[in-house]
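Reopening this ticket.

The earlier resolution said the output was attached, but the attachment link was broken on my side. Pasting everything inline this time so it's all in one place.
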Amino acid sequence: MSIKELMLKYNDYVIQTRREFHKIPEASFKEYKTCEKIREELSKMGIESEIIADTGVIATIKGKKDGKTVGLRADIDGLNVTEQTGLEYTSINEGFMHACGHDCHIAMLLGAAQILKDMKEELNGDIRLIFQPGEEMGIGSLKIIEAGALKGLDTIFGMHVWCDLPAGKISVESGPRMASADYIYIDIYGKSSHGALPHQGVDAVVVGSAIVNNLQTIASRELPPLEPIIVTIGTFNAGERFNIVAGEAHLTGTTRTFNNEIREQLPEILDRILQNTAAAFKAKVTLRVDRGPAVVINDKDCSLIAEDAVKNILGEEALALMEKTGGGDDFADLQNIVPGVYGFVGISNPEVGAIYSQHSCYYRVDETALIGGAGVAAQYALDYLNKHI
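Inline output:
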């Protein structure tokens, strides 16, 4: 049977499987039930699997002939979001939800596994199925790399369902696709005093406010205007009482860029602005920058194979061009080792209420689009192996 025929065969399976995983979202690196169920599904297909990085799963579909090895990756963790969709298969784990579509990613990869398992006699090489934990923490990829998940791989392919693309559209173009996502922690130390005598203190709130404003000049005055850069301060905690000048403030945030050279420069730029701003107010400040995911950059040759896969499976009209996004994904760390492509599968459809953004407590998807993602993943793997016989 062809991939298109097998897509029809497994369409209902992908949708039902997605709903089952949607019910049991789990925190990053605590995906125990998710891991167990993935292994159960693979076992039903006759595919042996093993646990990797504690809660991840890895399995191999061996082709009839020797050849290259294609990795297909799905992330599997949920988010600490309380679901408000009202769906009959809503989350049964209070305070957790698959609000970013990782349930869809699991289902699409299992669907691709069903298709490729049925076609293994036609595979000129092997397929490695990788179900990765901890993506929402930004370090799950590093865990599976350390555990050897990428050893022997020649390419890697991943997908993310995306709320800004109409259902039935898939984007797989080359170049930067998602931003780096690093984390910043700022601690400001001033001097507490009575609120009626501010001249006797050093107001950490005022210092922090100046720092927040000054950091925005990185984008407008520090770096070239054609280089996108985001500096977001997400939390600002200071003070103990309404009539006391705050002696300390603690800020957290994130930086995003599509340029790895700028990413390397940012810690020095941030620290310079922080130190000089704090000095102007006679305060002290410390900065910690923790590395998150790198820039997701799709390999040109791999993207061409993926584009043909989309056309073959869904038709040329399904191939979408999508603006890169400031969101991050640790798939980037996998691409730093193995050339590959990260595709975006459109799931937006107002008719089924799929209008909410990733991470929303109302997040829904048009499930009819999922089998297309599974089919494209399978076609990419098949085409890559055939091209590299």
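Reporter confirms the inline version is readable. The mean pLDDT is 97. The CA atoms of residues 178 and 286 lie 29 Å apart.
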